[in-house]
């Protein structure tokens, strides 16, 4: 930590990532105060609870065990019974082994029916780690509920060459069940159900009522939340392509878990970012954070993080907390595209915001223009520019920027980055004293949609 104008510029580096803060708006005294709150809340013990079978998801009375999949293949950071490791390994092996059967059956189209975490995770993995022309299958994701999506995407396909993955933790999600029924009717009776359908769920008994048996079901524990399920068989579509590379993804996540549990430098890194997020949102009127990726392969990363953060910490403030603002509004996307649309507002508008920018170090040589854009835009957002510009050309600056650089874009480092982001969300939730593992705001929409249908027909 180095002092600059009574504020503190912070940097961090390890084998997967490097980080630099630009134009921070809080200083050492603020960090000390926030660290005092961290210690008063005994958040170090909360971290230990997370990596155990402790029922840390208090409203749903269950543990949060998504990290078990990482520990099962990486370093053992989770203090849970061997039963959960056995489930994790057997289910991932079931996913990998399915590929042989599909190829033998001349399957060419893999349709993943799912929404939320059942869509965002596998979609991100496929787009980030695989090349379209190298994939064994043509992948389509059906989110529903607009039936036109099914008409456009599925009806032109050859039924004999098409296989459906029904991804639903609860096996009751309205959009997913509608799309599943459309798919089952489309396949019809000319083909065996088990040759064209498999489901991924934590609710086997519900799946059975729709015709799935143990051979056509891949199960995972109910203690794995939807937006945290990327590490599980919910990523089946991606696992079919990644195969052992998916294990590298899990190992990268496990490495971040190990750092959180035993590396003081990494913990300081996470805490500093968490403290800055809370500070900006509560005391500096920066309720918006733009997340920009300067890597075309990472273009879906913002979508994934939107759900992870806004569904996890988009909650009411805890009445006993010192902080009245909880989660920030996250938006963004591929940085180069953004520069030609909403960057005008970022550079010369009146909105108050902070920014996360992600680039890839190898692009210094491989994508020089792209990498130069990431560095130039980070500096402009943070510090502005007045030199060599006319008055109407000058940009605002003075927006705090977190600049992340992946050493290389691969499965291991992506796993590390996403696990880091989960740690960021979890520590933020503990500082805010809210539960990051439920989503009753999402549930409310489902309840009242059903009430409308019951009242108005449908």
Summarize the structure.
With 458 residues, the protein is an alpha/beta fold. Helices cover 47% and strands 14% of the residues. It contains 18 helices and 13 strands.
Descriptive account of the structure:
It contains 18 helices and 13 strands. With 458 residues, it is of the alpha/beta class. The strands form three sheets. A six-stranded mixed β-sheet has the order 3-4-13-12-10-11, sandwiched between helices. A five-stranded parallel β-sheet has the order 6-5-7-8-9, with helices on both faces. The longest helix has 23 residues, at 82-104.
For the structure shown, list the relevant keywords.
six-stranded mixed beta sheet; 458 residues; Rossmann fold; alpha/beta; 13 strands; 2 domains; globular
Q: Can you count the beta strands?
A: 13
β-sheet strand percentage: 5-15%
Task: Indicate the structural class.
Answer: alpha/beta
- Describe the global form: globular
The CATH architecture of the largest domain is 3-Layer(aba) Sandwich
Q: Estimate percent helicity.
A: 40-55%
Instruction: List the strand order in the largest sheet.
Output: 3-4-13-12-10-11
Distance between the termini: 60 Å
- Gyration radius, in Å: 23 Å
Using the coordinates shown, work out and report the CATH topology of the largest domain. Answer: Rossmann fold
Count of separate structural domains? 2
What would you give as the CATH superfamily of the largest domain? Glucose-6-phosphate isomerase like protein, domain 1
Question: Main β-sheet: number of strands, strand sense, barrel status?
Answer: 6 strands, mixed
